[in-house]
TrEMBL record:
Gene3D superfamilies: Aldehyde Dehydrogenase, Chain A, domain 1, Aldehyde Dehydrogenase, Chain A, domain 2. Belongs to the aldehyde dehydrogenase family. Keywords: Oxidoreductase. This is Succinate semialdehyde dehydrogenase. It comes from Bradyrhizobium sacchari. Transmembrane segments: none annotated. The lineage of its organism: Bacteria, Pseudomonadati, Pseudomonadota, Alphaproteobacteria, Hyphomicrobiales.
Length: 413
């Protein structure tokens, strides 16, 4: 029954894909093609968990006691709360709500103040699909005023958050008082490693995709592109010519590759990273755009000769600014890639299978794309190591964030 309603919800989202995509573009800014992709991606999580909910069976443990039977069951944890970001205003909601509802938990979602309408539109379709009143609620308004009661309330047993590490830390602390089960998907600062045995053109294509998707406002965005010295010049040159083709503009214009930054603070952070790198000796190459677009628009920018001391090499940018850093050896680049408190995703481009296996083992993060710039989707366990987060979303594991285990011992049989 739960599965049927969830599948009906996913179908309604797909049936209304065009209207939802336009709403996402107008609210969030991303190009319409990316918004359309997000709607399909978002509906996919609901379908995935509709099926996964049918497989939440437990275990029978071979007993260590005579005349007894040992069972482990999975049961819904209770009411869940979700605090979601503005960069994927539909998919970050369905990834959490699909899992919670399939597990049997009602969920209260507090979307980002920048993108409330996408959340409400998805909720409206949930109602139409037959979600019982109250099991999926959306709270729109001041983040602190809305989240504090959710944190305090002992009936809220699980909290799932996607957003900045700074707010994630606050929420983890806030949830401690009532000992909630917390899952966090926080910032990234992805290293993108390009070894000198690769086809430069393919690696540039991958780096462009990993950097400029969602106009760079993506926690998986390649923030530090390390290129082995032998191909550094060729890579930078090819990257610059691809960059020159990118068109900045309104998301509803068909030619647009890069939309406005959703928040002015994100656009300003891009400028700070560019200015800091330039002041410390980086070369700045910018794809020239119309200067009159407004302060939320950032021209796609390539920074070459970036060094580890520059801000962009130390923290997530979250915008269309690509930093390329040279390296000499595998050992050196691994040490530099791992010298971060963030550990969400990494990318490795190499033609050597041995190296791919070694590097993917040693890199400290939750997700690695080997010769692959795009690897997300409902079947994969999405999440990070270190201060990039706690827990996993999507996949077989995602539903467990909303379930408790119960061990039952039947004795005296
Ligand atoms: P944020 O963490 O402030 O916002 C994310 C969500 O948290 C929103 O719903 C917001 O309303 C809510 N929030 C903010 N402060 C809160 C508080 N004190 N209590 C409860 N909820 C609160 O993120 P931001 O400022 O919009 O973006 C800043 C940076 O965060 C970005 O530049 C990026 O580095 C990171 N970010 C990451 C993701 C991701 O996908 N992991 C998404 C958005 C932002």
């Amino acid at each position: 029954m739960r599965g049927e309603i969830l599948r009906a919800w996913a179908s309604l989202i797909r049936d209304n894909s065009e209207e939802l995509a336009v709403l996402v573009t107008v609210e969030q800014g991303k190009p319409l093609a990316e918004a359309r992709y997000e709607i399909g991606y978002g509906a996919g999580f609901i379908d995935w968990f509709a099926a996964e909910g049918e497989r939440t069976y437990g275990e029978t443990i071979p007993s260590h006691k005579p005349a007894s039977l040992l069972h482990v069951r999975k049961q819904p944890i209770g009411v869940a709360a979700a605090i979601t970001p503005w960069n994927f205003p539909v998919a970050m909601i369905t990834r959490k709500a699909g899992a919670a509802l399939a597990a049997g938990c009602p969920i209260i979602v507090k979307p980002a103040p920048e993108t409330p309408l996408s959340a409400l539109a998805v909720a409206r379709l949930g109602e139409e699909a037959g979600l019982p009143p109250g099991v999926f609620q959306v709270l729109v308004g001041d983040p602190i005023a809305l989240s504090e009661p959710l944190l305090r309330d002992t009936r809220v047993r699980a909290l799932s958050f996607t957003g900045s590490t700074q707010v994630g830390r606050l929420l983890l602390g806030g949830a401690a008082e009532t000992v909630k089960k917390v899952s966090l998907e926080l910032g990234g600062h992805a290293p993108f490693l390009v070894f000198d045995d690769v086809d430069v053109e393919k690696a540039v294509k991958g780096a462009m995709a990993a950097k400029f998707a969602t106009s760079g406002q993506d926690c998986l965005a390649a923030n530090r592109i390390y290129v082995q010295r032998g191909i550094y010049g060729a890579f930078a040159e090819a990257f610059a010519s691809e960059l020159a083709r990118l068109k900045v503009g309104h998301g509803l214009e068909p030619a647009t590759d890069i939309g406005p930054m959703t928040k002015l603070s994100v656009a300003n952070k891009c400028r700070v990273h560019i200015d800091d790198a330039a002041a410390k000796g980086a070369q700045v190459i910018t794809a020239k755009q119309d200067d009159n677009l407004g302060p939320n628009f950032v021209s796609p920018t390539l920074l070459t000769d970036v060094t580890d001391g520059m801000l962009i090499a130390r923290e997530e940018t979250f915008g269309p600014v690509a930093a390329i850093l040279p390296f000499d050896s595998e050992e050196e680049v691994l040490a530099r890639a791992n010298a971060s408190e963030m550990g969400l995703a990494a990318y490795v481009y190499t033609d050597s299978l041995r190296r791919a296996l070694r590097v993917s083992e040693k890199i400290e993060c939750g997700m690695v794309g080997v010769n692959s710039a795009s690897f997300t989707g409902p079947p994969i366990p999405f999440g990070g190591w270190k201060q990039s987060g706690l827990g996993r979303e999507g996949a077989r594991q995602g539903i467990d964030e909303y379930m408790e285990l119960k061990y039952v011992c039947f004795g005296d049989l």
